[in-house]
Amino acid sequence: xxxxxxxxxxxxxxxxxxxxxxxxxxxxxxxxxxxxxxxxxxxxxxxxxxxxxxxxxxxxxxxxxxxxxxxxxxxxxxxxxxxxxxxxxxxxxxxxxxxxxxxxxxxxxxxxxxxxxxxxxxxxxxxxxxxxxxxxxxxxxxxxxxxxxxxxxxxxxxxxxxxxxxxxxxxxxxxxxxxxxxxxxxxxxxxxxxxxxxxxxxxxxxxxxxxxxxxxxxxxxxxxxxxxxxxxxxxxxxxxxxxxxxxxxxxx
Length: 252
Known about the structure:
The protein is α/β, with parallel strands linked by helices. The protein folds into two domains: about 1-80, 2-Layer Sandwich (Nucleotidyltransferase, domain 5), CATH 3.30.420; about 120-235, Nucleotidyltransferase, domain 5, CATH 3.30.420. The protein is built from seven helices and twelve strands. The protein has a five-stranded mixed β-sheet, with helices on both faces. The chain has a five-stranded mixed β-sheet with strand order 10-9-8-11-12, with helices on both faces. Helix 1 (about 35-45) packs parallel to helix 2, helix 3 crosses helix 7 (about 235-250) and helix 4 (about 150-160) crosses helix 5 (about 180-200). The radius of gyration is 19 Å and the shape is globular.
């Protein structure tokens, strides 16, 4: 059995890879108050027959070392994906290629394949929002990072020493309470930022451009975004599936 695993800042996500190389429906578990390593160990216990794991993560070296040790102890082959200068059809646009988050690199791989020869913009809507541009030949042009929806609201509330709250239940541009004003302000500010960034990027890219929206808040934000976006909540699983296919074929 092959597992595809994405260890993010707040959740562990995974899929099984079937015999045809297709990922199953993505599953997820929030860390809550537990460390990410505990969630990963629970995953190993839940899949005693797993033989190979392709992992992408944005966590610490200690997490990586602990995961490697746990897999070795169980006889599981682990492939941890890292950002490199060029691989899987993508040419990394960062000055220091390894400084690009591995999750962003996997997203670029998946979006480039999804775009099928067209340029693409990948918007990953998680704890932070990342926006990356890829030309049709696979050249990564670079990207931007901004606070995610809840992180923006939490930061504003923290500056007020916790005296405020926010609500996203019924967002409106004409909020009639402070909690709705904070929630709506963060939402519409982020929507405007995403749309504006994508528009500016497209002015300097080949046409047409496929806008790919992924991450935990992708579907929620898509309902408020005015442009045309391709929503792929499990985008990274498709990227990990392709990387696994290439890795296992190379090792054959």
